[in-house]
User: Which sequence fits this backbone?
């Protein structure tokens, strides 16, 4: 990102999600006779804890208001706890010693010391982009020395470069890069040098590596001369040297309604990144954090769609353990002016007005908050540092829900009405929590509002959501629970097979009574099912479904019947049988970011000949499809894919193999299937 939003390469995208289809085909406005939306909040289904740097934004050195007290005070009021500097793609042309950015504009009063002063006034931690594109490891190390040794600023987080995959290596060229070799391998090799030089000055700093975001260009692409994708290459070389990875997310979209559906991609997006980290980092994978250091709706960024997207995306990413989410940008400048849901949108990627004009149209006065500013303010009050997110879900695609429990026993619920025309009545059910009977504290941001309103309305179980609105409820428990055991420690999985897994966890600290037993609960959306219980701190779960992703929590129950809060979540995926009458290997052999060519190898590993076969698998998501196939008959119904043999390859003697293939398409993270059946028998996946 440089002065204005830089257009990425045009990549055709397919709308595969049923939720998106409902948005795009139109939904009648809700009426008084419409059945209420059912919302489920389950405190037994624990997710990640909100970090103390979760709500962030970007500062840029072309912004002359970067260091003003008014800007800092507005950011503080919104609860911003992370500030990124010196501004997107400018990070790869900026030289901190001279405060220059050759080829770009540097505004007065935006030097590093001024930025730090503003960050301190805001109460936010800085995250700094070290110049990879036109800088050196020594320049970066000198910056660390100045910041943390000379000035004792204590800057903890340092990114190495910005969007360095945009250096022309994959075709598009917006990021400065003076290296003759622009490959991911060269970036990784230099990243190691930067990390070594910078940590030699201050071993306590955290080093971040640039990665591509799943299902967003150029993720999945292997460029000419490379052996693997950007992410696999960078992590294979530098995983031992980094402390976090950097993602940027500007979701591709068709219109404002479409972009609001993209938050459904978040769990799989972060799952795939963690899977990539685990592949290369081994035992230290859990120590490598994920930061989304640029994010924006990309459409209607100043009006209510931008706010709805911001709140939904921040909450969704924080639920998955992302330690900072940084909006692009504080100030950015006027763009294409349009009318969105009756409000003027200035096409400005800033969350505060720049007070600029385009022709006869002028923005509101400088520093007037746009809608996403208010969304970040709501997120800051909804999920505070140390709060643990818990599962929440609805039965209406136009209404989204998030929830977080607080250490004092309170519960906060965020409800998002993405319907531009109709209000929605909601009925809220709680699992593991009994709300008090009084009217809850309610914060609301409605379409066109210039501030967040706070009051008391509705009940803990019934609320009316205005069109295009954000609503946060803060609920007290009906009865204060004292003496309950603490939550068990972080669970781990071992001995994972196709049908079993051993779950272990650190013991919970007892409360007023001894711990009697532990319960293992599986998350299934916002519903949990108990998989077992034990008096010990380890339990082997059986009868699991092969090739399936499981997320579980552990709860402690004491001898008086008091129940702890849920532990942190554990996610693992079961495998397939070690021995079977068949084996299947699916390979992504050529990927272009929203589609791929796959080869599927089928082997008869049994003792009997096969005379005609039917292969079956299920896509993990609703946005994946088979576009065409060869060497077999391919059909898809929903997410279920059925493949039948042809006369040429239907006969497979014991030990014989056949190879078939297809062209797949995806409009979200491409999680490949891992379980296959052949003539009804579960195969070994290779």
Assistant:
């Amino acid at each position: 990102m440089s002065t204005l939003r830089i257009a990425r390469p045009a990549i055709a995208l397919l709308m595969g999600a049923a939720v998106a289809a409902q948005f795009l085909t139109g939904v009648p406005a809700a009426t008084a006779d419409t059945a209420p939306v059912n919302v489920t909040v389950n405190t037994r289904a624990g997710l990640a804890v909100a970090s103390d740097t979760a709500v962030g934004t970007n500062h840029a050195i072309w912004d002359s208001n970067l260091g003003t007290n008014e800007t800092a005070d507005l950011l503080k009021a919104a609860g911003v706890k992370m500030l990124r500097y010196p501004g997107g793609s400018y990070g790869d042309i900026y030289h901190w010693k001279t405060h220059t950015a050759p080829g770009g504009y540097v505004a007065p009063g935006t030097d590093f010391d001024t930025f730090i002063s503003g960050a301190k006034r805001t109460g936010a931690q800085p995250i700094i982009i070290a110049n990879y594109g036109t800088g050196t490891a020594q320049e970066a190390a000198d910056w660390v020395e100045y910041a943390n040794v000379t000035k004792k600023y204590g800057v903890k987080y340092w990114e190495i470069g910005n969007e360095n995959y945009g250096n022309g290596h994959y075709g598009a060229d917006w990021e400065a890069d003076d290296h003759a070799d622009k490959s991911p391998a060269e970036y990784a090799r230099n990243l190691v040098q930067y990390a070594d030089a910078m940590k030699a000055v201050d071993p306590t700093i955290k080093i971040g590596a640039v990665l591509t975001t799943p299902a967003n260009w150029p993720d999945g692409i292997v460029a000419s001369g490379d052996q693997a994708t950007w992410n696999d290459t960078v992590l294979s070389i530098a995983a031992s040297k980094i402390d976090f990875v950097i993602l940027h997310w500007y979701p591709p979209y068709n219109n404002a309604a479409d972009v609001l559906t993209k938050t459904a991609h978040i769990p799989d997006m972060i799952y795939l990144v963690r899977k990539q980290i685990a592949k290369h980092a081994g035992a230290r994978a859990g120590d490598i954090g994920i930061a989304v250091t640029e994010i924006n709706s990309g459409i209607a960024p100043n009006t209510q769609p931008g706010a709805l997207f911001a709140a939904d995306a921040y909450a969704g990413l924080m639920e998955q353990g992302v330690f900072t989410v940084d909006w692009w940008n504080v100030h950015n400048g006027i763009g294409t002016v349009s009318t969105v849901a009756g409000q003027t949108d200035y096409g400005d990627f800033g969350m505060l007005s720049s007070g600029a004009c385009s022709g006869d149209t002028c923005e509101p006065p400088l520093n007037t908050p746009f809608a996403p500013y208010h969304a970040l303010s709501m997120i800051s009050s909804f999920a505070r540092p140390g709060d643990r997110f818990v599962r929440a879900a609805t039965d209406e695609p136009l209404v989204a829900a998030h929830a977080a429990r607080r250490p004092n026993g309170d519960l906060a619920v965020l409800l998002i009405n993405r319907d531009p025309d109709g209000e929605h009545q909601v009925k809220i059910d709680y699992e593991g929590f009994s709300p008090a009977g009084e009217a809850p504290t309610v914060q609301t941001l409605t379409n066109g509002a210039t501030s967040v309103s706070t009051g008391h309305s509705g009940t803990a179980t019934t609320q009316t959501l205005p069109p295009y609105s954000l609503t946060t409820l803060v609920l007290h428990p009906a009865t204060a629970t004292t003496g309950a055991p603490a939550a068990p420690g972080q669970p781990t999985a071992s001995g994972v097979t196709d049908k079993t897994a051993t779950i272990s966890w650190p013991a919970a600290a007892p409360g007023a009574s001894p711990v009697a037993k532990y319960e293992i609960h599986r998350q299934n959306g916002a519903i949990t099912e108990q998989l077992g219980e034990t008096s010990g701190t380890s339990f082997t779960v059986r009868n699991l479904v092969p090739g399936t992703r499981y997320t579980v929590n552990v709860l402690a129950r004491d001898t008086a019947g008091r129940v702890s809060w849920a532990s942190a979540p554990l996610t693992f995926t079961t495998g397939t049988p070690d021995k079977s009458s068949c084996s299947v290997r699916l390979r992504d052999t050529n990927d272009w970011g929203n589609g791929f060519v796959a080869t599927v190898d089928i082997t008869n590993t049994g003792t009997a000949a096969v005379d005609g076969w039917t292969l079956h698998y299920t896509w993990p998501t609703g946005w994946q499809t088979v576009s065409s196939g060869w060497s077999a008959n391919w059909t898809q119904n929903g997410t279920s894919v059925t493949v039948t043999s042809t006369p040429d390859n239907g006969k497979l003697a014991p030990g014989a193999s056949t190879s078939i293939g297809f062209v797949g398409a995806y409009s979200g993270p491409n999680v490949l299937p891992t379980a296959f059946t052949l003539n009804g028998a579960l195969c070994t996946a290779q």
About this structure: The two ends are 40 Å apart (CA to CA). Residues 184-201 form the longest helix (18 residues). The longest strand covers residues 37-49. The chain has ten helices and 40 strands.
